[in-house]
Amino acid sequence: MGSIREGLRALARSADAQILCEVEFEGVRERSPHFVRASIRGAGLAGYRTRLPADAFKLMLPAAGSGSVTLPTRGADGLPSWPDGVEPPVARAFTVREYDADASRIVFDVAIHPNGLAMTWLRHAVPGDVVGLAGIRHDFAVGDVDHHLVIADASALPAAATIIESFGKGTDATVFLQVESEADRVDIPTQEGIQIEWVVSPPCRGDGTPLERAVRATPRPEGRIQAWIAAEAGVVRTLRSFVRDHWGVHRDDLHAVAYWKSGRTNTETDVDAARRYTQAMADGLDLSDPVVVQELEFA
């Protein structure tokens, strides 16, 4: 595989693991001061055949934080729709932390935001409660490169962990991980060739953050670099430009994702994204191309 761009485009065009199903809540436990770990299961997850690092899905949760949900149908444009008079659930995105194919079980981590929808749902959920799941979005592939660069804030920590776990022996990588406390430094494997720098700070937003400063202070690794960046939108925009302009990372070797946007709710961000993608489809753009998607997101 030549580049992460080629790999992700091929996966998107294959329509691998396109799932829309009901899942049952199994349980939740504390993981660290700012994360809990939850599990869900459902027969519809049998379609999840190719598990890759940083795989993402969306749970469709009741808007009130408890109760049942109605699954949508997909229109010709690929977007979900609900019958008239049915209140749509609210979608929240998560990373597959573990997957047990035999049990059709997904384990995922949830950042603790006490008044957030996901935590409200988890406080009320009991084993057997049913919600919807839509996915799976593949967000990482390995290109033919000499060095990997992984940059993630706390919101992307679960995804970064799965990427680091996937690196084989002999992989050279530089990793920057932002967390809010030393106690959140859990579940990240270490091995020879992988340099991890932890940035302990409040959530990073926009320009000039501790996460950005840590990256800028690091000498450029030698050779061809693949960069994977996931954090707040303003942080990602700045670091995306930096690694392209100063480290010479080719756009085919760069995958950047905004996991959240300062000043916007996740629901507002999803509405904005749906509007952009609908217009992009009308314009005939190739939304299987991750570079096209990034240009839409960070234009």
TrEMBL record:
Alphabetized Pfam families for the sequence: FAD_binding_9 (PF08021), SIP (PF04954)
Protein's name in the database: NADPH-dependent ferric siderophore reductase, contains FAD-binding and SIP domains
Matching InterPro entries: FAD-bd_FR_type (IPR017927), FNR_nucleotide-bd (IPR039261), Riboflavin_synthase-like_b-brl (IPR017938), SIP_FAD-bd (IPR013113), SIP_fam (IPR039374), SIP_rossman_dom (IPR007037)
One MF annotation (Gene Ontology) recorded for this entry: oxidoreductase activity
Alphabetized CDD domains for the sequence: siderophore_interacting (cd06193)
Superkingdom field: Bacteria
Organism: Microlunatus soli
Coiled-coil regions listed in the entry: none
Positions of the FAD-binding FR-type domain: 18-143
Bilayer-spanning residue ranges: none
